[in-house]
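Project standup — Tuesday

K.O.: blocked on the structure for the chain from last sprint. Re-posting the sequence here as requested.
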Amino acid sequence: MGLWNWAVDTYGRPGVAEAALALQDDHGQNVPLLLWAAFARTTDPAALDAAAALARAWEAAAILPLRAARRALKAPLPPTPDATREALRAQVKAAELAAERRLLEALETIDPGQTPLVPLSDALAAAGHAWDPALDPADLAALARVLA
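H.V.: unblocked you, prediction finished:
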């Protein structure tokens, strides 16, 4: 199974979306990077550096601007009818999801650089640290529990 299909299946499991979004919103983490880490199960510094750099580029160029637009369109914007605003918001949300999919597809091309697979908690901690060296690995515990 490819990373995209695995991520969609995994994200739909109970508690995964909530844990992932809490890391995104409360700790500034990149959810596609964390999902890639859980899939690739690596602590290889070269792979993690490449993955974090790729995720930063996609986040800056596409994901964050689309997310900001989607969130801004959540509130009414008179005199625009709510149905019109919500239709545009749905289109922006679809574009945001498409950008995340492209990021996951690009991440999948990165060689994880080691075998055998490392424990899930180690892979998540390494990816979280590659994204933000100040992240407390304990902040990843909820996601590790629901992914296990």
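K.O.: great, moving the ticket to review. Helices lie at 3-11, 16-27, 31-40, 45-72, 82-107, 120-131, 141-147. Residues 125 and 137 are 5 Å apart (CA to CA).
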